[in-house]
Amino acid sequence: MTAFQFPEGFLWGSATSAHQVEGNNIHSDWWAWEQAGRVKEPSGVACDHYRRFNEDFDLAASLGHTLHRFSVEWSRLEPAEGRWDEDAVAHYVEVVRALRQRRIEPLVTLHHFTSPQWFTAQGGWTRPDSVERFARYTQRVVEALGESVRYWVTINEPMVYVRMHYVQGIGPPGVEDFAQARRVIEHLIRAHAAAYRILHAAAGAGAIEPQVSIAHHLPAFRPCRPWWPPDRWMTFVTDRIFNRAFLETLIEGRWSVPGVATQMIPEARATLDFLGVNFYGRQFIRSLPTHRPWPAGSCDLGHHPRQVRERTALGWDVHPDSFLEVLTRWSRLRLPILVTENGTWMEDDARRWDFLLRHVQAVARAMQAGARIIGYCYWSLLDNFEWADGFGPRFGLIDVDYATQQRRVRQTGERYAQLCRTNRVEL
Q1: Rounded distance, CA 197 to CA 215, Å?
Q2: In terms of C-beta density within 10 A (0-12 exposed, 13-18 middle, 19 or more buried), how is residue 3 classed?
Q3: Which of the listed residues 35, 56, 294, 353 has the most CB atoms within 10 Å of its CB?
Q4: Helix (H, G, I), strand (E, B) or coil at 223
Q5: Which residues contact 36 (CB under 8 A, 6 or more apart)?
Q6: What is the tens place of the pLDDT at every residue in 156-187?
Q7: Beta bridge partners of 234
């Protein structure tokens, strides 16, 4: 057995998002969605992380973490249009300070699936002025945090957000409309570009030189029936729309997908300083006899158990070799890669550790093959509210007893700590 030594300064850590851990985000559209009975259970106090962040960061530091990804909750900062909550702004200043005091690099996400209720009620991301509104919010955040934050994610999983909220209708505003989905994609691209320029402009005023990206969910798509041309074609189309098009627009300024007229968005060109990669497994694609547009032709992996030999407790595919493939493939963009999410829920914690170890080994192998990877964030630091799935799934390195808010580090968290401290992994 050989060992891979990660380079000095490689960033090890974990991730959270505001709505999933903070609790009582009463001004967000997801809170209203929950109160309307649209999910299994409401988020409520969640992990009470808004009040307990110091305790949680103490645990992260004790586990050798040098990076922590979290999100700022827009609806806390701007609960009503044009009205800023200065106490909430001060809170996030303290969050960043708390991380810095523990020598943990903050990675700030500006939008992680949630928006203010007023924003969504007025049309949200379907409106052209959504870009200006997001830019205004970004400006307020960078004024508060810019001097202390190097790494930024503007938008978490933009294509997952579009699919969930504007195609499947399983998140606010609950729309199932492809025309609206296309408008939202365009506005998210323009919003990222606007935020990118705001963040970089702040650097000239004394802030840390920022490194800005999105966190892009990049599954490895596979045809359910490799021998069947329609499945191979649908897999190509899905990969093009879901994986490639958004990224290529942020590199070339040109949004292009099969069957849709190419759209030039020049302000989006060259607006990635690194590539944030979220990875959770393969997804198998089947073409269906339907006249409905994409993604009506996709199927979930549960339909093909013979092709999925190992699953998480949610039934998701476990395939570290596909992670290696994804990291190697996207390293061709010649951007540094930061793994912004990779994690699992397993009933057996030994299997959770096995998952984590094999995926870190995939990172090492990708680096051996030439990929420039600068850090790895496990999802998640804490058990948390998993959107429509409620509190059932438990992804955390740290177990949370929701009745008492007691924290307990899982053995996976302890074993990951050894990896973080030694900066090496056995292959």
Answers
A1: 17
A2: exposed
A3: 56
A4: strand
A5: none
A6: 999 999 999 999 999 999 999 989 999 999 99
A7: none
Confidence of residue 301 (pLDDT cuts 50, 70, 90): very low
H/E stretch holding 101: helix 86-101
- What's the length of the chain? 427
Q: What digits encode the pLDDT tens for the residues 45-84?
A: 999 999 999 999 999 999 999 999 999 999 999 999 999 9
Q: State which H helix or E strand residue 71 sits in.
A: strand 67-71
Cβ(131)–Cβ(187) below 8 Å: yes
CB of 397 within 8 A of CB of 355?
A: no
Quick one: fold of 3-223+319-426? TIM Barrel (3.20.20)
Please give the mean pLDDT across all residues of the chain: 94
**Which residues contact residue 252 at a Cβ distance below 8 angstroms, ignoring those fewer than 6 apart?**
269
How many Cα atoms sit within 13 Å of 350 on the Cβ side?
0
Q: Write the DSSP assignment of 264-323 as a string of letters.
A: E-GGGTT--SSEEEE---EEEE---S--PPTTTTB--GGG-GGG---B-TTS-B--HHHH
Put residue 222 in one of left, alpha, beta given phi > 0 → left and psi -120 to 50 → alpha: beta
Least trusted range by pLDDT, from 2-16, 104-118, 247-261, 340-354: 247-261
What does the alpha-carbon distance between residue 237 and residue 295 come to, in Å, rounded to a whole number? 9
The answer to whether residues 277 and 218 touch, using CB atoms and an 8 Å cutoff, is yes
Q: pTM to 2 decimals?
A: 0.97
The per-residue pLDDT for 303 is: 55
C-alpha to C-alpha distance for 424 and 5, rounded to whole angstroms = 4
Please give the structure tokens belonging to residue 144. Answer: 């508060």
Q: Phi first, then psi: what are they for 322, rounded to 5°?
A: -70, -30
Nearest Cα to Cα of residue 97 among 137, 57, 41, 66: 57
Tell me how far apart the alpha carbons of residues 385 and 392 are, in angstroms, rounded to a whole number: 8
How far is it, in rounded angstroms, from Cα 128 to Cα 260?
20
How remote is the C-alpha of 36 from its chain's centroid? 25
